[in-house]
Prior knowledge:
The protein is α/β, with parallel strands linked by helices. The chain is built from 14 helices and 15 strands.
Amino acid sequence: MENAIIIRYCEIHLKGKNRGYFEKMLKENIKRSLKGINFTFTTMHSRYLIENFDENDYDLITNKLQKIAGIHTYSRALVVDSNLDDIFEAAKLLCEDKEGTFKVATNRADKTFTPSSMETSMILGGKLLDVYGGKIKVQVKNPDFTVNVDIREDGKTFVYTDVVHCLSGMPVGSAGKGLLLISGGIDSPVAGYMTCKRGMKLDCIHFHSFPYTGEAAKEKVIELTKKVGEYNGGINLFVVSFTHIQEAIHKHCPEEFMITIMRRFMMRIAERLAKQQGDQAIITGESLGQVASQTIESITSSNSVVTMPVLRPLIAFDKLDIIEISRKIDTYETSILPYEDCCTVFLPKFPAIKPNLERVIRAESKLDIEGLIDEAFKKVEKYVF
Ligand code: ATP
Ligand code: MG
């Protein structure tokens, strides 16, 4: 009796003629993620199969599968020769620690196998009751668990009970590339996770205000970036020094526009970096109305300095829903660590909640915008995770 992992995808089925492209990308993403682990990989009618792996690697493999966008579910299966005795032995083993209601569902790709699917299910169900009758009971509608028997064309049969749900979404890389503005907060890592789950491969940019924000604040962002990278098949982080820009705004512009003008610089720098890296979109963690810088007027102001699409996957999310996702992807505890963010450094007492764009542009005209941006690009640190 051998072990196998059956991997299924879902939305790719909808892809018509392009399906091959998505399937190939998912296959490559799986193989890349499992690099260094010994196994064999086969494609089989809209499913992938992982076999011949070391039992000790099972948890490692399945933990990785749960972070690969495009995988809908997986099952651990026992693989036996296609005969009733061997199939029953496998089913018996799988039901050892089960209790409650069950049914057997047989599917024959090999139509030469006898008896029929229905009869096979009945025979196996009866035999399982003979062994475990005290703790399991047949129920065809909505049973607690199903013993699936998949009789393949090649003389082998899969037997499995559990189906584990994974991320779903689309394979990373199938929806182009984007640049995530990542802060140390709760929202932006969630926005990144959601975007790469839809197939966009991410790079990250973070604005750092050394010495106002310290090493610990940067480490926190590195930690968060790595977590997002687990879903992204690795990730690049660009840390851009922002202090000189903040100091210039602080010195030359009205205090109420501090955040507004900072945001406009962030967007300009992000767009320039995105173009250099071949990224096609900018992604932020903004959520409508969450803070003064996320009113529609503030968003209009920061959006108006770039032409690249700006994706805001959290725009209509409530904070509690965002927190729930951040817990799920294990970024929450890191995000709430109390380090200064560059946006809190020069925080005005009364930020403009509905900044007037003409006044903002006038205020900003006191600055050497291009010069400040050029200077920021002289101090970019790149990390590859
Ligand atoms: P987050 O929880 O992601 O920090 P937030 O609710 O604190 O978001 P803001 O501080 O207004 O909101 O930031 C809005 C968005 O701007 C962030 O989600 C992020 O995409 C981007 N951003 C803010 N600060 C930085 C920074 N220091 N570096 C890079 N991007 C940033
Ligand atoms: Mg923040």
